[in-house]
Write a structure and sequence with these properties.
548 residues, alpha+beta, Immunoglobulin-like, eight-stranded antiparallel beta sheet, six-stranded mixed beta sheet, globular
């Protein structure tokens, strides 16, 4: 049995717990030879480099580092038989390695320190729980997905400070590009740090990317081959330079001479810090940009019962209500006579009908109780409010926040986030073919993931399957959510047709699809399995586009 791991209440800073000589947690980046350069680098994006987690002592020397990563390398036994046909990803653990012996190492990024009471068994148990990448997802997953998910697990257990993992991954890609440009064929052992300054720089780069994608490049009077490739994801320094050249042609007659000269330098091949210069220039007038008008939206990510009158389990009832400028919505409502069994540190099952409007004020109201069947009075577990004032200049956006709401005999924690520029997404999954049956007895799981929202929309076991006819939607719960405009939304499906006789159940679809937020409209993708297929779609509901 895997050892139990305790989630720490304080997960803010790993560098302030008072322990000495704690082991260091690094993200290590390795180049993948020809896959890390040229068109393959543009095509693969983050996956153009290999990512791994290293655990090293404070003063690292020699073979004293443990390495963890997801690998799909071929496994062959002594007779030449392939042991892993299809090469699925698996967890690779290497004990006692010397990072300097890996000649493809481009650098290490310090992301946290490890508590001294975390044993090797605890660490391996934690990483073994991280899901393996899915090669058949859309787009295919890689070691990068595993490493980011491993970092999320480390954050949950308080071993790595909280930060925006999407911005972090983009910053790492830029860091890898820069390191590769200096690579001399030997391991690069220097250590980089990632903090608020680096996160803000990356946020600026992301803004540049979205602005460039919104430009009507057909109006730019330059040859097609000279236009920056802004559709491939993150811009390389060379693409930033090409974008500057393109904007010279677009803005040349509208910029003062000094500023025009600064941009013309890019025409002569200057690429140093091009993205930073582009960030400063892109916001200036003179270009026609069409983009959606997002607004602040909030989501309650989870509510956890920390203590329920010291009982394990307790019987919980009560309500959680949110009131914003669109009116009230109830996310949790259990009557006293229907109290549910809840254990400490268990997340409540919430009912969500829409995101919270955060362009005005809103209030989250908790009124939760422990039901006692005997003559003693019921116990107040959590009672209080979380208030958001839209006019408060100290508000924090785009960062998950946790608030503890106490009662006389317990407490609960609310994890929520307010997204500054978000849009509402409505997810739908339609059965196209369920093993040719009409109806199909559907069971399995549908979930979504984004920077902030990770949520199960449908989850049923085989003996609890539901009838769904081809062309009809699979009923989902909580299928409306807020997504930042600079984020992505991934829909994961693992659906089956239940057969009550002796024959095995039939796989309808097992895959995933990723969607980029749009100002409006609906985007659809087809996901298939061995015996069926489903259509997944996202409808984006935002304000109308604004012209120049």
């Amino acid at each position: 049995m895997a050892p139990e791991l305790a989630i720490k209440n304080n997960s803010v800073s790993l560098y302030s717990r008072g322990q000495k000589n704690k082991r260091r947690i690094y993200l290590a980046i390795y180049h993948r030879f020809e896959l890390s350069v040229g068109n393959d680098r543009k095509r693969l994006g983050h996956s153009a480099f290999h990512w791994a987690i290293l655990i090293s002592p404070k003063k690292q020397s020699g073979k004293d580092t443990d390495a963890f990563d997801a690998t799909d390398t071929l496994m062959v036994n002594q007779t030449g038989e392939i042991l892993n046909p299809g090469r699925p990803f698996r967890l690779q653990v290497k004990k006692g390695v010397d990072p300097s012996r890996a000649r493809s190492l481009l650098g290490r990024i310090l992301i946290g320190t490890l508590d001294n009471d975390m044993s090797d068994e605890n660490i391996e148990s934690l990483f073994s729980r991280v899901p393996m990448p899915n090669k058949f997802a859309d787009p295919p997953e890689s070691c990068v997905n595993w490493a980011l998910c491993a970092i999320m697990h480390l954050q949950i257990f308080g071993e790595v400070a909280r930060f925006d993992r999407r911005l972090f991954s983009d910053w790492v890609l830029d860091y890898a590009d820069r390191q590769l440009s200096r690579y001399q064929g030997e391991a690069m052992m220097e250590v980089a740090t990632y903090g608020a300054e680096q996160e803000n720089e990356q946020r600026d780069r992301d803004r540049v990317q979205s602005e460039l994608q919104a430009i009507d490049w057909a109006s730019v009077d330059i040859p097609e081959e000279s236009r920056p490739n802004v559709a491939m994801g993150l811009l390389t320094p060379e693409e930033c330079s090409r974008a500057l050249v393109a904007l010279v042609a677009l803005w040349g007659s509208k910029l003062p001479g000094g500023k025009r000269m600064a941009m013309i330098e890019a025409r002569q091949g200057a690429i140093d810090d091009s993205c930073r210069r582009l960030a400063a220039e892109i916001a200036k007038p003179g270009v026609c940009i069409v983009k959606p008008n997002p607004r602040p939206l909030a989501e309650i990510l989870w509510v956890m019962i920390n203590d329920i009158d010291g009982e394990n389990p307790g019987d919980l009832y009560g309500s959680i209500t949110i009131t914003d400028n669109l009116g009230p919505q109830t996310m949790y409502n259990v009557e006293k006579g229907n109290a549910v069994s809840v254990r400490p540190r268990e997340h409540l099952i919430l009912s969500r009908s829409r995101p919270i409007a955060a362009d005005g004020d809103f209030v989250i109201d908790l009124n939760l109780w422990d039901y006692d069947a005997d003559a003693s009075p019921n116990d107040e577990v959590s009672r209080g409010q979380i208030s958001w004032k839209a006019s408060d200049t100290n508000n924090e956006y785009d960062r998950a926040m946790q608030r503890e709401i106490k009662g006389a005999y317990g407490k609960a924690t609310v994890d929520y986030v307010v997204m500054r520029n978000a849009i509402k997404a409505v997810v739908q999954v339609i059965l196209v073919d369920g093993d040719g049956e009409n109806p199909a007895d559907v069971f399995g799981k549908v979930s979504v993931s984004s920077r902030f929202v990770q949520r199960d929309l449908f989850q049923k076991e085989g003996d609890d399957s539901i009838e769904v006819y081809p062309g009809k939607a699979i009923p989902l719960s909580g299928a409306t959510m807020a997504i930042p405009l600079d984020d992505t939304l991934t829909i994961h499906v693992d659906l089956w047709d239940y057969d009550s006789d002796w024959s095995p159940n039939d796989q309808i679809a097992i895959s995933s699809a990723t969607f980029d937020p749009q100002g409006s409209g609906t985007e659809k993708k087809l996901l298939q399995g061995e015996y069926g297929k489903v259509e997944v779609s996202v409808t984006w509901e935002g304000d109308q586009h604004k012209g120049c």
